[in-house]
Amino acid sequence: EGIYTGKEIKVELEPAEPDTGIVFIKMDNGNPTEIPLQIENVIGLSGATAVTYQDKTIYLVEHLLSALHGLQIDNLRIKIWGDEIPLFDGSASLWVKEIQKIGYALFPVPKRKIRILKRYEYQNGIGKIIFEPANKLFISAKIEYEHPLIGTQEFSLEVNPLNYIKEIAFARTFGFKDIISERISKGIIKGGSLENAIVLDEKGVVNPEGLRTKDEFVRHKVLDLIGDLFTLGCSIVGKITAIYSHHKLHTEALKTMYLANLLEEFTATS
Predict the structure, then answer these.
(1) Using one digit for the tens of pLDDT, what is the confidence trace for 9-19?
(2) Residue 263: CB partners within 8 Å, gap ≥ 6?
(3) Helix, strand counts (H, E) of the chain
(4) pTM value?
(5) Is 247 a known active-site residue?
(6) 133, 40 Cβ separation under 8 angstroms
(7) CA torsion 166→155→70→174, rounded to 10°?
(8) Of these residues, 63, 246, 247, 250, which one is catalytic?
């Protein structure tokens, strides 16, 4: 069920040949529309990332893209019957488990990647993101909330499949009960439950199972950033530091860098 629409959603992942990249296919009444994953087809919203082409839009793509980026899967066709990607438990765990269950192949061809050419800093309000050249993908994130359970949290790691599965994939999105209630009353959220996210009231976690780790909040921010970075269309290498960042800031920064030729595509054997 879609959290925005409240409607049933169906998603199919299909293998694709080398150099296909990631392609979303919106299946509307037998009239499919292909939306290649390219930064010009991406919209960063306040609480989600969307891909769009012509008059077709698919919302909440970031967790699926995070799983693909984390697992280094860069050729895939994604068919969607609906307007959004299901949130499931608010993490990327289900995507990772299902992809691992089916398995994926390593093509004997060089991988397309993108590197950062020089240091670049982008700010929007208090949110800031810093890009620096490096030979692998390193991410550091910092968040701060005036809530007794969150406070200030920081997390850093080198992104590779093993680290992603162990340290990031399980981290769920989170929201505050009063804000969620307001969005439900306004009709912004038509689906969803405590199974889709960590929900916080003024004292603590409403979900009966509690947290998976004490710093699950900042780990989810890293999960989101890994997904948003993949909107460039292939894996990125560099050192990225995100401070109080969000989807809109990520997308704005990537589009600015892309247009300013601060990113360079190259091929690598691994």
Answers:
(1) 999 999 999 99
(2) 114, 115, 116, 117, 232, 236, 257
(3) 6, 16
(4) 0.94
(5) yes
(6) no
(7) 90
(8) 247
